[in-house]
Design goal:
The protein starts with a helix and ends in a 24-residue tail after the last helix. By secondary structure, it is mainly alpha-helical. The chain has one domain. About 0% of the residues are buried. The protein has helices spanning about 1-40, 45-60, 80-85, and strands at about 65, 75. α1 crosses α2 (about 45-60).
Length: about 110
């Protein structure tokens, strides 16, 4: 039991260290590139962490998946579940996009 607790604590600390490292890398990239290009200010670690969380939430991929049935391929992300739940009308009512392919014409006509 104590070995499992130690293992879980070690994995949790490792996960936090990896996330902190990724935030630190994003902060270094931001501070190396954007202030010179755009004139924006440099950011600190916690500002960068907040931006990372905000962008993650805005894209809808926050690491939570919901399962429909028991098959793994039927798993949906949170934004897909919310989109299906709160969509207006049915699937046929809405924006329809058609993609056309252009075939190359032979020069041997």
């Amino acid at each position: 039991m104590k070995k499992d607790l130690f293992k879980h604590l070690l994995m949790g600390a490792g996960g936090i260290a990896v996330m902190a490292g990724l935030v630190w890398v994003v902060m270094l990239l931001w501070n190396a590139i954007l202030p010179e290009l755009t004139g924006w200010n440099e950011i600190g670690f916690w500002q960068c962490a907040g931006l990372c969380v905000m962008f993650r939430l805005m894209t809808g991929h926050i690491g939570i998946s919901y399962r429909n049935g028991r098959k793994r391929r039927n798993r949906r992300h949170l934004h897909e579940t919310l989109r299906h739940r709160y969509s207006a009308g049915n699937d046929k009512a809405g924006l329809e996009v058609k993609v056309f392919s252009v075939e190359k014409a032979d020069g041997n006509d």
